[in-house]
Amino acid sequence: MRDTFVRTLIELAKEDKNIELITGDLxxxxxxxxxxxxxxxxxxxxxxxxxMTTVAAGxxxxxxxxxxxxxxxxxxxxxLEQIRNDCAYHNANVKIVCIGGGxxxxxxxxxxxxxxxxxxxxxxxxxxxxxxxxxVEAEECTKALAxxxxxxxxxxxxxxxxxxxxxxxNFQIGKAIKVKDGERxxxxxxxxxxxxxEVAYEMLKKDGIHPAVYTFPxxxxxxxxxxxxxxxxFELIVTCEEHNVVGGFGAAIAExxxxxxxxxxxxxRIGINDEYSVKVGNQKYLRSQYGIDGPGIVKKIEEKxxx
Length: 307
What we know:
Elements: H1 2-15, E1 19-23, H2 28-37, E2 42-44, H3 49-61, E3 65-71, H4 80-88, E4 94-99, H5 117-122, E5 127-130, H6 135-147, E6 151-156, E7 177-180, E8 185-189, H7 194-206, E9 212-215, E10 218-220, H8 224-233, E11 236-244, H9 249-258, E12 266-272, H10 283-289, H11 294-305
Parallel strand pairs: 1-2, 1-3, 3-4, 4-6, 5-6, 8-9, 8-11, 11-12
Antiparallel strand pairs: 5-10, 7-9
């Protein structure tokens, strides 16, 4: 996803000289094509994420569209006050980009595991929160955020993610994407966990369960219309996220469902069950350990169906 993001941003920045990219002294291998082609639209703020964010806010208030770039929790939790006070409060045109959402940097331990970011950024007024599920969504999110006026958060994977969509027609911030039709069960996902949902879908089909699948590249604003429709058509709504279940994507779905006057469906949230990982390993290993890989998703869905 990060390569797709950088490639797309280069194309956009060549057309719009107001686009600026600021890195917190990271990503030089992947960012090299950007700074070589657009040296006057690139800044290395050093290992000083709070300062990076404040500089971005200042640039934005002078008319720039600024993308800040770092890994894991560094561009978000480390500089949360600056995002809140300098960017969101002023509706500054700053896009915070996290490379390595979820367990991408799992081998570096919990300090590098971004598992609360969606909840934290979603709680800030005036902040759009996006988490693309594949390379096509990553490209569309980047284009949409470059055009969007205001503060936003873009949560990406790292590298090696699959291209699942062939193409996306009429991509819009705040709109979910239907991937597959189905019956009884609808699976909603956000972010790179989409690839595990694809695995789960194939496994469920073999067991005679044919779920509908929707991906939500936008966590905030959430697509209420799709949620309300699915709640009237399906018996079970399943949310999948590589994130704490408290305050994250599943919670956003639950908030909509809680305020509905009538609904047919009940909800199963699949994610990290309000705990820090005490285990260290690669992303695939940690997903399996916490039951959010394909087989883990299938097990939880089938258990719920058979209750």
